[in-house]
């Protein structure tokens, strides 16, 4: 039996918006530790891993491990029926082919319930090894989203160069070329906001090329966190991580492009 309540529907809405463009159907794995999801996109190019710890919910009850196959688009449509500040209670049980969603307004005056049919999804759970990265960049998530959006007008690929001075994003195509350099230790959004100041941890300089289509999809998680962390190493997938209210995270993994200038 799973029964858990999250205080604001807006949190779940933002999480689904950050995942559903990449993955259509996925298993939510439920345990006493919380809710997790791991899935590849349809092209098997990117991997998304989501964790919401049990502390994200109050109350949280999960008597036995459950795997709930859910169509994320349908889940998102039902969540749109809730106001952003409604509480959302999820209920599911083994042997039942639906998950129950109950919404309640802040003052308790409005309550609504929906049952969403579950799916039987055959998915392989991939082991993600702990990787020591050569370069880690923590920066404003809004700035990262804007950079990806702006440079996509030039090409579908982006080169990320990390040095101790800062991080440079560049792209070139038939239209022309462009680059954006963010200095280490400074905030490009608001000089007074130390939380979004760009910080770089560097073992050695890195220069890698990635698909902008995927990075733009990853950046849909921007509303969840003021900052994003990019972890890069040669010959291993890029890790793009957004924290979720200190009770979880969304991590995206994307292999670098090979053989591009």
From TrEMBL:
<dbReference type="GO" id="GO:0043626">
    <property type="term" value="C:PCNA complex"/>
</dbReference>
<dbReference type="GO" id="GO:0006272">
    <property type="term" value="P:leading strand elongation"/>
</dbReference>
<feature type="domain" description="Proliferating cell nuclear antigen PCNA C-terminal">
    <location>
        <begin position="127"/>
        <end position="257"/>
    </location>
</feature>
<dbReference type="InterPro" id="IPR000730">
    <property type="entry name" value="Pr_cel_nuc_antig"/>
</dbReference>
<keyword id="KW-0238">DNA-binding</keyword>
<dbReference type="InterPro" id="IPR022649">
    <property type="entry name" value="Pr_cel_nuc_antig_C"/>
</dbReference>
<dbReference type="GO" id="GO:0019985">
    <property type="term" value="P:translesion synthesis"/>
</dbReference>
<dbReference type="InterPro" id="IPR022659">
    <property type="entry name" value="Pr_cel_nuc_antig_CS"/>
</dbReference>
<comment type="similarity">
    <text>Belongs to the PCNA family.</text>
</comment>
<dbReference type="GO" id="GO:0003677">
    <property type="term" value="F:DNA binding"/>
</dbReference>
<comment type="function">
    <text>This protein is an auxiliary protein of DNA polymerase delta and is involved in the control of eukaryotic DNA replication by increasing the polymerase's processivity during elongation of the leading strand.</text>
</comment>
<dbReference type="GO" id="GO:0030337">
    <property type="term" value="F:DNA polymerase processivity factor activity"/>
</dbReference>
<keyword id="KW-0235">DNA replication</keyword>
<keyword id="KW-0539">Nucleus</keyword>
<feature type="domain" description="Proliferating cell nuclear antigen PCNA N-terminal">
    <location>
        <begin position="1"/>
        <end position="123"/>
    </location>
</feature>
<dbReference type="GO" id="GO:0006275">
    <property type="term" value="P:regulation of DNA replication"/>
</dbReference>
<protein>
    <recommendedName>
        <fullName>DNA sliding clamp PCNA</fullName>
    </recommendedName>
</protein>
<dbReference type="Pfam" id="PF02747">
    <property type="entry name" value="PCNA_C"/>
</dbReference>
<dbReference type="InterPro" id="IPR022648">
    <property type="entry name" value="Pr_cel_nuc_antig_N"/>
</dbReference>
<dbReference type="GO" id="GO:0006298">
    <property type="term" value="P:mismatch repair"/>
</dbReference>
<dbReference type="InterPro" id="IPR046938">
    <property type="entry name" value="DNA_clamp_sf"/>
</dbReference>
<comment type="function">
    <text>This protein is an auxiliary protein of DNA polymerase delta and is involved in the control of eukaryotic DNA replication by increasing the polymerase's processibility during elongation of the leading strand. Involved in DNA repair.</text>
</comment>
<dbReference type="Pfam" id="PF00705">
    <property type="entry name" value="PCNA_N"/>
</dbReference>
